[in-house]
Amino acid sequence: MEDAASLTALPAELVRDPGVNSIHELDAAIVACRACPRLVAWREQCAIEKRAAFRDEQYWGRPVPGFGPTDAPILVVGLAPAAHGANRTGRMFTGDRSGDVLFAALHTVGLATQPYATGIEDGLELIDTRLTSPVRCAPPENKPTPLERHTCAPFLARELDLLDAVRVVVALGAFGWQALFAALIDAGWSVPRPRPRFAHGATVTIGHPDGRELTVLGCFHVSQRNTFTGLLTPAKLEAVLEEAKTIAGLGTGTDTEGSETNDGEDIHSSGTADLRSAGGE
After folding, report:
1. CA dist 129 to 14, 82, 184, Å?
2. Domains of the chain as residue ranges with CATH
């Protein structure tokens, strides 16, 4: 059992732990985090009070780790879990309308095995793609404070460091874009100065001292405001994801029949379900 000091440790302290050398270990550290009092109180309040439509469900009510294969060449970076979405289901983008839009597009372009996501036992698997966010707890009004963003940032920086197969990152919205570049700097990437500005369709390619190259693509966030107003349409989202596939060397196509990566590992190799099955609940 964790002691009080480990539960309140800052993410920067947790990711420096010698034991955090894999995505699974990072996921476990994320789930155990209680560093931000306001976010802890809000996520747990939502899990107790619940939305009427989900009153019979048991909420996750904790920080949400990334979801998808650890050898994915494509990473999608969002904002933060929704109070009655991922904070309820325990899986990134799962259980809210923003996720409905994202998973439908991922399936259309061949990066997900089904076009919907309702919970961690729905059978969904991602293909060559991982989902993550710069803030891991659901914030009140979907607005984390600058201090909360800064406190949580080391988790994303460490995730980027451990995901050495990533070749392209799709940043959803200006917040995801800004948080991503801050994390890339922390992870040692050579980011231009001044930092590139966000725009839908923006493309920035950067390098790492170890020789890796990474392309960042900007995309409007899959929020209801953006999709209801038509600022982001399915076609626009799918076009960005298709570009990500091309850059990652995956080509085009929508074959979602396979459930294994090239090395034979299960394509859903990291996420809340693994932590629950390992006794992390």
Report:
1. 25, 20, 18
2. 4-277 (3.40.470.10)
Mean per-residue pLDDT over the chain, rounded: 88
| Rounded to 5°, angle at Cα 47 from 102 and 172 | 25
pTM: 0.88
Closest CA to 169 of 247, 79, 91, 55: 247
The pLDDT > 70 percentage for the chain reads: 85
pLDDT digits (tens, 9 = 90+) for 93-102: 999 999 999 9
Question: What does each C-alpha distance from 193 to 59, 72, 137, 181, 182 come to in angstroms?
Answer: 42, 28, 30, 11, 12
Quick: pLDDT tens for 82-138: 999 999 999 999 999 999 999 999 999 999 999 999 999 999 999 999 999 999 999
Torsional sign, CA 20, 76, 280, 136:
positive
Where residue 130 falls (left for φ over 0; alpha for ψ -120 to 50; beta otherwise) is beta
